[in-house]
Prior knowledge:
The chain is mainly alpha-helical. The protein has helices at 66-69, 74-89, 96-103, 110-125, 133-157, 168-172, 174-194, 198-220, 229-253, 259-286, 289-292, 298-301, 307-313, 317-324, 332-342, 345-362, 371-385; strands spanning 33-37, 42-46, 161-162, 165-166. The strands form 2 sheets. It has a two-stranded antiparallel sheet with strand order 1-2. It has a two-stranded antiparallel sheet with strand order 3-4. A hairpin with a 4-residue loop joins β1 (33-37) and β2. α4 runs antiparallel to α5 and α13 crosses α15 (332-342). The chain starts with 32 loop residues before the first strand and ends with a helix. Residues 1-23 and 28-58 have low confidence and may be disordered.
Amino acid sequence: MPSEGVPCSIRSRVLHKQQPHHNSSCRSTPSVRTHVLTPARVESSPIVPASQPATTTTTIVALPAIGDILTPVAADLVVMNANLKSVVGNRHPMLMAAAEVIFNAGGKKLRPALVFLVSRATADHMALPELNDRHRRLAEITEMIHTASLVHDDVLDDCNVRRGASTINSLYGTRIAVLAGDYLFAQSSWFLANLDNLEVIKLISQVIADFANGEISQAASLFDTDITLEQYLDKSFYKTASLIAASCRSASVFSDSPVPLKEAMYNYGKHLGLAFQIVDDILDFTQTSEQLGKPQGQDLASGNLTAPIIYALRKSPELLEIITSEFREEGSLPRALQLVNESGGIEESKLLARQQADMALACLESLSDSPSKRAMVQIVEYVLERIY
């Protein structure tokens, strides 16, 4: 979601190659063709060329508020948040105030919420009476890893406000912020090891490794107008979808799910995460600076070429020239934003987000019906609702 307050520069975590753990097991939308990701590699799946009319009509249905959608796991999230603050503050009193800021700083906590939803949906499917302690610890680990990355990013970007609240580095200085982030990473690694499940340890450890490699890779690809849609999706997987996919599969592991269901949950998280990132990249062009909490088109201005730009570059030689010049001429950025819209980059990106969302929904077909499964469906539509 866009942050509020002082703009932060682009946070990106990019490509880190590894061997795929498995192939996608979900039914693909038959009338489309796109590039979708296995854990680290890109494979072909059906996709409608973005320049052709869509074969389906998008129906806009009013969704409940996100708080209502997360009702099945609301109590789980309250307990998790209290546990997270005690993890930092009880062992290190000097970080207690920082912990209060970190874990009370707004945000919808979608990542741990998805862990709980997948945990409950797969537990229901497997006829388990209740979640176990490893489900709950996994949600805490997921939020700790995500939060640690944000704390460190705020230091790197010298960001003073996130989610409408002052950041740790602006309140307590760089030293405390770095230590708090380091401690969260270290503690999450310790909790992860104590889950005593090699499959989950490998999944989540790879996500942490992706974070470390991403910043360097992103910096090396700025203003690269040769970037392909496949490379963009690959980058977006490691930037956003990797943690969501790995944590969703891990949740199903702790429900003793069979391999096909574990793969379906991984791919649900993967495609949801990709849709989420594509939508965020669209909003950089369609929302105002006030809505975004940063200047409109900041991705483009910084050289981070996203789906709307990639699609537009196919049709606009003028846009290619402007980006290649790195916006040296006055007024070139507003002109580039205009060209992205005029060249159909926004509409084609919306189709791409819809395609990824449909793939995520297809991965839920093997799950038994339950309140948590229905919430997982609604979260997919909630992500897309922001661009309509």
